[in-house]
Specification:
The structure is a homotetramer. By secondary structure, chain A is of the alpha+beta class. The first copy, chain A, is built from 8 helices and 18 strands. In chain A, the strands form 6 sheets. Chain A has a 5-stranded antiparallel β-sheet, covered by helices on one side. In chain A, strands 9-8-10-16-11 form a 5-stranded antiparallel β-sheet. Chain A is globular, with a radius of gyration of 21 Å. At the B-C interface, β2, β3, β4, β6 and β7 of B face β2, β3, β4, β6 and β7 of C. β11 of chain C pairs antiparallel with β11 of chain D, so a sheet runs across the interface.
């Protein structure tokens, strides 16, 4: 019914693409945590549109204004509210398609759900722009996790048929995650970057778009966090990841490919290494029975091609119930995947901090 | 922290494999809904172990006793509690492996999470057996949905590399879903059944196990149900599906394969058919922006091979921190997929009824 | 919509007065906590009907059967389910009043809410009997709190115009709370007991009933637990206390009488005592800004007279919409207050443990 | 852990008294509801400080800026975010008392709860100022309820020992509620106003403060809304009312006075009036078994005297653990009750709309 995540961390996301502002209230944060705004801005800049041809030309500042919850650069422990004002609004671009459902968009379903009263400009509350406050929330959580030795990072696993070097599920390191996050186009392989950029450019030129996959990992996350059944880490992570528009699937560890294996191939044997229990392989992706095993947490998320393409498409005016040809104007990413990378990280940062806060300790 | 699902439908699952009983409290159900217990038992029988070599020999009756919430064969609207007593408990089979972590099981993570206090017999609360009350809850919801013209059904999409005929995402019908549910081994193709059975048998003979994929669909579900962002149908469905042990991934519509498409290939164009808005293709799987489109809802779920295999495996005694060889005795399914089919349906039935209840209507 | 409490502790209450059984699923409990069943039974016996003329003659055993969540007499940390089977059911007593609304009961409102489908026998889910599983849950939490030096206790503050000696809000001790809990009729003053018993007996003789007030306290509860605004201790405690049928009001500290004071009279000045911050008076009842102050937590709860009285009453048959005279047969307490005492304690035990679990500690 | 209300209506309150802004995210609202901002401002003006000597001189505009959720003056159905910027901040007034606990305030408990990191200026998140966004939310809900024939209103029931004419629990009308809301000092009796004003003025002159009671009612609320046990209307209403600082107690219907009655006096007999079931008296306050009866909903809320008084008080510096005399400077209401009236209404408006939204209708 809502845009509320209500667990160890409480998240209330709000905003419409062309309204006054978008933002988030983030509650349940531990008190007294230093907040570095340069790091937050750097995190959010990774989601912001690029001028390199891979994304929309919309000039968003996306700088979050803090309304509450931070005092003397530390979390107060009470609700942290942040707003990003919408300044660069070209509503006119959308006027002519208001009632013609853009294929693969939520225009029609949103119209039904909200009886025609939702804000249609730029996708309204369905806009990918609402991932900006999600990234803000994730950036705050990231700093709290990092202080406890936990690093989250993601990369572009694939764009269409071009694949990056995958993370090594056993040996991925915090340094590697930091490295890939520092790259303007977050791949591990420079060759992959080149090929992917070409692919995205050619899609753009062809008035088309492409999909891809983001791979995300966390290292340093302690073993024993999470719960079985309905409160497992997979449940919580996927519950947040599907909040990112254009996500069509999620898989943990070796994911769908485990369905083609024998148990003797898929089972990760346990061993003792430096006095610590590990698994020799990490097909399980760091989660067993909903609970962290101490191995790197790894999952992949499939993104569909950007629905907005400039080619003429057949569609329906859902007010008049007539079939119409649709031409979408305006600014659109030919591929959402590069900008989706920090969004997936944000979801994981929030999920992990939330799970740690839920594993409370009466003696603590 | 818990086994609670708290939305339009409230679900509180409980139980351990070798405790007194397992069960569920199901709250938020509409009042006055007739409940057919033969249908419930038939639903649960599909999850029960088979005597055809594809599953464990454990002789579970799995008949749920109703403690509350049903009066004169109708829901009262107050909490419905159901218990399945554990009668056939062979705890002795598990004694010798209590502290040696079974690979791909939650023995070690559960031990950490619960400080060694959780019930270790037969996996305790982590046992696949806890899907029996999930199926009970799903079977109750199924009847309420069916009365409103909504049919949910699933089939074995694949076992290892053997694939069944997939559902047609546009034209799948209620009849087809009912047909496949009526089959003892739920595939659309008889050839697929034969091959899959052979594969499972050969895995069993080889003291091994195999994974696979379940495909699930709903037809007749009204358009306009669900919400954007954190309360989307995908969020809710995946939050329930990951409660089923052994699930490693979920994808909606064309899922991960959309990541390899152009937008022009992936976008589902709208059309008017018999006065109703439809899409010509259904790559989106019946959900746009978290909200149902009126097209069939389709998703696939990847199951790993059964972790329990009889072959010797290397592992660690997590109490003594020593490496040990492990031999798992007892009864185990060589493939969980056939019995997982109704579990996935149960998750969808619960999710859909829950979403409908949340789309409340002040005028209603 | 439901009977679910979903906080640090998760509670799912179920059952109808004359159904198969009533019970509770209690989730979020810390793992490895010893559970003493004699103490639980003793707690529940305080709620059970007495044979001393103060309560109904219904012969309830009210012994809870544990279905899950306890292993080797300790909490497993996974959901604890307990059932109390209904054995002594005299449904016949209620047959003739099924559709004539008993004044001050929920017959009519329940009929509307559940469209006539709720179980009408003995009040169904509205029965005071559902406080038995609440007491079970409270008794489990009580043991966990006690182990940490926290004691909860309540007494009969008043029956009609007869008052017991109130708790001293500053100096009430754990011993005093244990003492009053050990008394068959929980008052501090023996004179008050004598007068109250006479009052209750005379009400019974007059085919009437009487109301009263329960006062409840906790000592040893650490300072700094709870949250401002919507998650304050008062919010959580009152949210649980109003689950007890017949409660009409709740007040913390000096409660309604503070409305007649000057600030200079009501403010509790702080002082240092034995190196600890205390207040010299305790008008605030141990809670400031929703958070515990370290002083005893004190509140009072008003109970209305038992609605069921044997005198003829005027009412309405809500099926035929005709006015009718009603004569209630069956067994009824002339005063619910003595049996309500452990129910109020149960609510506080659950609320306090829940709040402690929510004050989680990342470093813990 | 937080300031989140998560039911049919979802509320996320945020802000600190001297931070950038305070506000609320309000989710779950029905779509397409017209919003009249003049009415909202009028509602909030009733909470704003008065220049008549009854309240602080702080010059707050308290005009809410809408960030999202309203489009063309109607609710979009997606989250409505509103901010009130803090402009008139005199932080300097509070500097010298930062670590000396103000009696009856949350300075000390907040310091413990948030490990000294919370914003201490003007009470921070504990400030009564956070009721401004609560009033905003209540004002939005009020308009949606009014459109369905439901009117909520409150008056000053008492200030210290001076009492207003109470509402007639059976015959209170929408007109009477509207009348009392329109009065600058909301009493039914003009004499009561005069006496109360004198009392408040004399308290102010004496550098003191006084407490009082607010009585609140709703008429036109349909019968059959709410649920038994943990989700009763009393549970939900009290869960919201205790979010208002200074509340020490709540009672429904005849409240604590029912504890002094016989059942034969307290029971409300049913009757048929104009083809509708009513009760002849309304001691139950419109709620039976947690569910509305169709009679006026009535309750009273006790407010303690404003904790901030200018007289010297004894207290403790909780950083140095030394006893100190405290003199509170700054602006303070000698009585919070007049400004609390719309806050209590706001809580009821939110609770009632939320409950209606939870009583969803599958057929709706």
């Amino acid at each position: 019914m809502s845009s509320v995540f209500n667990r160890g961390i409480k998240l209330s996301l709000f905003g419409e693409s062309h309204g006054k502002g978008i933002g988030v209230v983030l509650d349940g944060l531990p008190a007294g945590e230093p907040v570095d705004f340069d790091e937050i801005n750097a995190f959010m800049a990774r989601r912001a549109p690029k001028k390199d041809g891979t994304s929309t030309m919309r000039n968003e500042k996306d700088s979050a204004e803090i309304l509450s919850g931070i005092y003397e650069n530390k979390t107060t422990g009470t609700p942290l509210a942040a707003v990003i004002y919408n300044s660069d609004q070209h509503s006119g671009d959308y006027g002519n398609i208001a009632h013609i459902a853009r294929p693969a968009h939520a225009d029609y379903t949103g119209f039904l759900r909200y009886k025609g009263a939702n804000d249609p400009r730029g996708g309204g509350h369905f806009s990918g722009r609402i991932t900006a406050p999600l990234c803000f929330a994730g950036a705050v959580c990231e700093q709290i996790l990092k202080r406890r030795g936990i690093t989250v990072g993601a990369h572009i696993y694939s764009v269409k048929n071009v694949k990056d070097t995958p993370f090594d599920p056993v040996n991925v390191t915090a340094n590697q995650l930091e490295f890939v996050k520092s790259r303007p186009f977050p791949t591990l392989s420079e060759n992959a970057e080149t090929e992917m950029r070409e692919l995205i450019n050619s899609a753009r030129t062809a008035q088309d778009s492409v999909g891809g996959i983001v791979e995300c990992a966390a290292v340093g996350f302690p073993a024993g966090i999470g719960s079985p059944m309905l409160d497992g880490l997979e449940n919580v992570i996927s519950g947040l990841v599907f909040a990112i528009p254009a996500v069509k699937g999620i898989e943990f560890g070796n994911g769908f490919s485990c369905a083609e294996l024998f148990g003797s191939e898929n089972n990760d044997e346990f061993a003792v290494q430096n006095g610590k229990i590990v698994t020799k392989t990490n097909n399980h992706g760091g989660i067993l029975g909903g609970i962290s095993s101490g191995m790197p947490i790894i999952f992949r998320v499939a993104f569909k091609p950007t629905p907005s393409i400039s080619r003429p498409q057949n569609s329906v005016d859902f007010k008049t119930m007539t079939e119409q040809e649709l031409i979408i104007k305006g600014r659109h990413d030919p591929c959402v995947v590069p900008r989706a990378v920090p969004c997936v990280e944000a979801a994981l940062n929030i999920a992990l901090l939330s799970a740690m806060l839920e594993n409370s300790n009466l003696e603590g």
